[in-house]
Amino acid sequence: VIPGNPSIVHHVLIYEDTTGVSTTKDAQTPEPGYLNFGGIGVASAKLIGAWVPGSKPQFYPPNIGVKLHKNAKVVMQIHYPAGSLSKKDSTTLRLRFSNSPLREISLAPILRYANSGNGGLLNGPLSIEADEVKTFYNQYTLANNYPKISLVLTAPHMHLIGRSIMAFAVTPTNDTIPIVKIPEWDFRWQMSYYFQKPVVIPPGTKLFGKATYDNTATNPFQPNNPPKKVTAGEATTDEMFLVYFGYMLYQNGDEDMV
Fold first, then answer.
1. How confident is the model at residue 211 (pLDDT cuts 50, 70, 90)?
2. pLDDT at 56 over 90
3. Residue 53 has what pLDDT?
4. pTM to 2 decimals?
5. What single string gives the DSSP state of each residue in the chain?
């Protein structure tokens, strides 16, 4: 994803829609595209890529790629901040196609700030009072009947009052697998972090996330003066707690793939 007007492009999410719902929504408005807050308004849409501040072009390891289905629509959702209504933007998406079959990689925010459910917060809801420093935890359990998976990359996400974020896994044999740790979060530099080699996660493993938020005046990224209560939401001045993963079904030898 290449932002056309970096002064107003907040972030970009790329989805695949195999239902045609996005086309219907587009046809209901005279201008190109359509408005939708939080996703593209298609429940089954699959995330296939993203751009956030600090991102670099995303290239997967050899013989690995994102699958696009025949006749599917690629939908680019662009978030613009308040005050950008009269400005122009020509953000572009560049795809590189393969001439040979690839292993399929999937992208998903496995650890989330939902109040319940697998992957959701253990101590939600995500709400931080003014002048409060608070830590939240989430957990996802890989079912015992699910295949072994190989993690290729991870991408944590939070907003301005987030100060640190980490994720790790605990296997059924109580081995702890470190995944990512960012002790000084900076919203301006959000990246996808590739593991040097895929991290193999067996069935029954628990994935844990931990994120700390500083809603005091001493936080250098504090958006409110004076600080005020911050809750979960889409705006930059709201908060999120997400850890995205890029993963594949395990194949023999993944542990040694560079």
1. very high
2. no
3. 84
4. 0.89
5. -B-S-TTT--EEEEEEESSSHHHHHHHTSSSSS---SSS-S-TT-EEEEEE-TT-----PPTTEE----TTPEEEEEEE--TT-TT-----B------SS--EE-EEEEEE---SSSTTSBSS-S-EE-TT-EEEEEEEEE--TTSPPEEEEEEEEE--TTEEEEEEEEE-TT--EEEEEEESS--TT---PEEEEEEEEE-TT-EEEEEEEEE-STT-TT--SSS---EEB-SSTTSB--EEEEEEEE--TTGGG--
